[in-house]
Write a structure and sequence with these properties.
single chain, TIM Barrel, Four Helix Bundle (Hemerythrin (Met), subunit A), eight-stranded parallel beta barrel, 9 strands, binds flavin mononucleotide
């Protein structure tokens, strides 16, 4: 797809709770200078009543970085979108895809797909508060409401409020009976449905998400849509981001060892500035050598050494040396 809208990179790393925290994002950014990074979902309640500076903290190196919000109160979402913009985020994304029971009770996530008018109102209010793009991440349907017309009504209604970018996880969510984890595997993937939406709304920027794991698969999807969002594979096999960067943006292929070492000064700074335990950062790096020689040793050492008393960030150097012994 000839992508005119350079505001939307060809690929992004999905928002993933407990996974894509700021340390993970910093690491992913080293692997891919172009990818768009998403925060974990932050609820409006957490931002308005909790430690907002801590929730919103990120490193300047992370740009472009999008803040994902969870909520359904237009005024609260607008206030939080503004907080995100003021903190320098590049995009605000509204979560309409999370099926967890916990968030459903707060009218957050996939349950909102049943209320397109409310989502349109939320997006409208957010857009009135910020100049940066407001985007929506959704599923292709919920429960029995899983036909084209349902998704089309959702997308059409929200796009009328001016939102022109949708990230669509190409499987529906069951709102009861399945755990969030099962909801990422059990409902069948349906990329054709996302394509139908793109065909009906050619002017919208569509990012497709769900089970996309290889450079070839990403390139295939880019024939049809503007962007691809990668979740679990980017976390479990982060070097995929470097391979995508190389293949799609034609940059030099990053070196795994250099990337690992480049994390040392970052960890030192986080320790100094925020007293961050090393393991909070290294836990995101265990997949770096996925399917490479020494991967098992790297994983083992990286999951144990940072827990030891007196561990220093330079342990990464030691692990790199020991992993082939
Ligand atoms: C651990 C984990 C946490 C997630 N948290 C969020 C979240 O906070 N917000 C969201 O929109 N989606 C969340 N998701 C869903 C992902 O963003 C993505 O839509 C899903 O994993 C499908 O993409 P994939 O097959 O490439 O992993 C999460 C997924 C995982 C695995």
């Amino acid at each position: 797809m000839n992508q005119e809208n350079k505001a939307l990179p060809y690929f992004s790393v999905a928002p993933m709770m407990d996974w894509t925290d700021r340390h993970c994002r910093y690491f992913h950014r080293l692997l891919s200078p172009h990818t768009l990074l998403y925060t974990e979902m932050i609820t409006t309640g957490a931002l308005l009543h909790g430690d907002a500076p801590r929730f919103l903290r990120y490193d300047q190196a992370e740009h472009p970085v999008a803040l994902q919000l969870g909520g359904s109160d237009p005024r609260d979402l607008a206030t939080c979108a503004k907080m995100g913009e003021d903190h320098g985020y590049d995009e605000i994304n509204l979560n309409c895809g999370c099926p967890s029971d916990r968030v459903q009770k707060g009218k957050i996530g996939a349950i909102l797909m049943a209320e397109p008018e409310l989502v349109a109102q939320c997006v409208d209010q957010m857009q009135k508060q910020v100049k940066i793009p407001v985007t929506v991440k959704c599923r292709i349907g919920i429960d029995e409401q899983d036909d084209f017309d349902f998704l089309d009504r959702f997308i059409s209604t929200i796009s009328k409020s001016g939102c022109d970018t949708f990230i669509i996880h190409a499987r529906k969510a069951w709102l009861s009976g399945l755990s969030p984890k099962e909801n990422r595997t059990k409902p069948p993937i349906n990329y054709a449905r996302v394509l139908e939406i793109k065909e009906k709304h050619p002017s919208l920027n569509i990012s497709v998400n769900g089970d996309i794991k290889t450079v070839e698969a990403v390139k295939g999807h880019l024939q049809n849509v503007e962007s691809v969002m990668i979740g679990r594979e980017a976390y479990q096999n982060p070097y995929l981001l470097a391979q995508l960067e190389h293949e799609i943006y034609k940059t030099d292929l990053a070196d795994r060892y250099k990337i690992a070492r480049a994390m040392i000064p970052y960890i030192e700074k986080q320790q100094k500035d925020f007293d961050t335990p090393i393991k909070s950062i290294t836990r995101h790096m265990t997949g770096l050598f996925h399917e490479q020689k020494g991967a098992k040793k790297w994983r083992q050492l990286l999951s144990t050494l940072p827990h030891e008393l007196g561990a220093k960030p330079t342990l990464i150097d030691d692990v790199l040396q020991q992993m082939h012994l």
